[in-house]
Here is the input.
Amino acid sequence: MKLITVAGPPSSGKTSMLLRVIDWLKEQGLQAGVVKFDCVASKDDERYLAKDVPVLLGLAGNLCPDHYFVTNIEACVRWGQSLELDILISESAGLCNRCSPFIRHALAVCVIDNLSGANTPTKMGPLLKQADIVAITKGDIVSQAEREVFQYQVRKVNAKAEVLQINGLTGQGKERLGALLKQAQDIDTLDGRKLRFSMPAAVCSYCLGETKIGSDYQMGNVKSIAIPDVPRPEVS
Here is the structure.
């Protein structure tokens, strides 16, 4: 079975894009399933079920989505194998530009939309920089010049990835993305595999449930902003 990790900001068009690609994969005789990771709530599982796509929904709740993903993805792989899927797609919203951490030797797809702003790619972290494929959506809403500028900014951040223009409404680009998914490496297990990028440093007092503000209530990993001294006016 192939494992594909797909991540991108909320409302970037991930699910619409994937539904089109999964339809194309079905035409090729391949069975694909999805694990949808989110923070608080999602109805995307209903969209997959309506298309007879096997789906799991995992909500991180008050846990870090990164950690929730990593501690559950191996069990999800075993679920996909039990259904004899050809492809298992992990989909999650990169709320901190890191969520759904990419795994070495598992195809990684970043989804980003043209409406997010021309400078957005330069503000994104490993979610974009570590991807094998960057799928740019909603190109039908902007001009050709805006699409080219946005794609140029993406390539500045990640020059090695294959960049595709995808339209979840019309299905434009689904064949190329589907073909790349078909070529992905098969995996037997994730046990012992490594992430492409380390997890965010965590475990501070607020991770453990503290709600009060102030240095007296802070412990663990704490990082302070550098604030320059403000010169005081001389008193004559």
Q: What stands out?
A: The two ends are 78 Å apart (CA to CA). The first strand starts at residue 2 and ends at 8. The first helix runs from residue 14 to 27. Strands lie at 2-8, 32-38, 55-59, 87-93, 107-113, 133-137, 162-165.
